[in-house]
Design goal:
- The structure is a single chain.
- This protein has one domain: Rossmann fold (3-Layer(aba) Sandwich), CATH 3.40.50.
- The chain contains 7 helices and 6 strands.
């Protein structure tokens, strides 16, 4: 079995907004260059609230342990939300200034616009993006992809409350039984 790629750490500058204020936020990422397949998939992982990008290390290791999977995937990006993990430290001046001004730190809309800014970077321009979201970031993908976007070929959302009981998903969609 061949060795899988070690993640590269990248910091990107994203032009987005917080509230109605245009800002430049940093985005700390882990990048895995998996294959040279031009038609391969680009996986983009986002974490739940109160978590960080490194939570996906075991998942990615397991995913890349399968040769067939590695042949299908071109690359993998794992990113921190703007006020989480290493990204929070990089964005501290902007976030502290907002807090001092009495403005909300980051709303769901802010997170979604941040994700949309990430998806619009030149690195992803010609990519077949598959979004993989956990918990609170599931909503961000839905909001981020509501605008016309050249990528977002697929989206996988995992949320514990949908897996708690066999009928939980049906209950969530249809409402409680009378």
């Amino acid at each position: 079995m061949s060795q899988f790629p070690a993640p590269e750490r990248h910091v990107l500058s994203l032009h987005t907004t917080l509230g109605s204020d245009p800002v430049e936020l940093k985005c700390s990422t882990l990048y895995y260059p998996v294959s040279c397949a031009k038609d391969g998939l680009t996986l983009v992982f986002t974490h739940g609230l109160a978590s960080h990008k490194e939570q996906y290390d075991p998942t990615i290791t397991r995913l890349l342990s399968h040769a067939q999977t590695r042949a299908t995937i071109r690359d993998i990006w794992v990113l921190d939300l703007p006020n989480h993990g290493q990204t929070a430290l990089l964005n501290r001046p902007v976030l502290d200034a907002r807090k001092a001004a009495g403005k909300a730190m980051c709303t769901t809309k802010d997170f979604a616009l941040y994700l949309r800014a990430f998806l619009s970077t030149p690195s992803l321009e010609s990519s077949k993006v598959v979004g993989l979201a956990h918990s609170g970031s599931c909503t961000l993908w839905i909001f981020a992809l509501t605008s016309l976007h050249s990528h977002g070929n697929a989206y996988l959302a995992t949320e514990e409350t949908l897996h708690a009981r066999p009928d939980a998903r049906l209950h969530f969609i249809a409402g409680p039984k009378p």
